[in-house]
Task: structure prediction
Amino acid sequence: MASSTRRLGIPAAGLALLLMLVGCGGAKTGGGTADDERSEAVSARDGSVNESAASGTTRARPGQAPSNSAGPARLPGLGPRTLAEIPDNARQVVLVTGRDKNSSASQVVLYRHTEAGWEPGATWPAHNALKGWTDDHRVGDLRSPIGVFALTDAGGLLADPGTRLPYDQGRGFTINGTGFEGEPLAGSFDYVVAINYNRRPGTSPLDWTRPLGAGKGGGIWLHVDHGGPTQACVSVAKQHMKELLRTLDPARHPVVVMGDAASLAR
Result:
């Protein structure tokens, strides 16, 4: 099913240069994160950040976990607090489980809800932020936010691989430089899915709007793995990003459930 392609009213060359300097993947020079520094830049420029979370909160709405009476009782590893945050209508869950609170290693499994219950896909190795996970993500803390977040928008440097999500292709997804372990970051944003943490749903992943304010960061994505820890994003291999993009269906209200194993079990 063909997806719509969108463009922002921001020069692609300017975005490309910014991403070259500070990548979500974690360039060794420049400091901060692509998400956090983009937020600070636009805030300082025109004060456009909306401090109110009410009109643009992007965390998935709390609700009871979907009924699983015909299949597995619940998504594995999730405790009652986490399950309660998954919306009633969610029928696709990208489960990102970190090794521990301070680890950058994690795994990703895409679950879909059918008449038989929750059915898992393959398990993929992944990276999260350099310092692990946090319940209170802040600019530059080098931790990924824990929680349940909707997945509504995608994009990338490369052409749409066949996703149902709205897809923004453009040079704004260009990134260069090296990551925390000296690995090249080029290609990390070939394919991305925006994680709706402190962002405005229904816009390109490159949209700089931060409803909770610039200090809470933003621009946190699922993207192509570059072989090392990220600034705050979650990354998987390129072929897995393509598979994820082709599978996610807005009609099934996909969400990502992400955090270290102990936190998700709460």
Observations:
- The two ends are 38 Å apart (CA to CA).
- The helical segments are 12-21, 34-46, 80-85, 238-247, 261-264.
- The CA atoms of residues 39 and 186 lie 22 Å apart.
